[in-house]
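Chapter summary example.
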Amino acid sequence: MSERQFEVFYDGDCPLCMREIRMLMKLDRKQRVRFTNIADPEFDAGTLGTSYEALMQRIQGRLPDGTWVSGVEVFRRLYAAVGFGPVVSLTRLPGVRSALDWGYDKFAANRLKWTGRCTEACHIPPRKDARSGVGAA
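The structure predicted for these 137 residues follows.
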């Protein structure tokens, strides 16, 4: 991962996710973060030893040594990388940590519904095949 401090794997089809990712991209003036869109038809989770479905369940990130992190810890790493380290330390306080973890878990479980990508039973959408633009089997 060269000189980057962190790589984030985000759902580029999620409008709420993209709002935050675009803001973080602007704040990342020192290019410490590698932003990887898992919705890109060219993206292949298999090369990372994981699956598209696993990456869609919760936001995932990877440290330069290959260690994976997920959930709120990803946001802590992202915001620390763009210069908000002192604020990030507050998110590790016991009550704050629990509330953020609970809130993110609710968001992750409902984000497809809350972003209008399903109406009743929500399932992870199939990946688009890079060659044909249709769902891959």
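To summarize the output: The chain has five helices and four strands.
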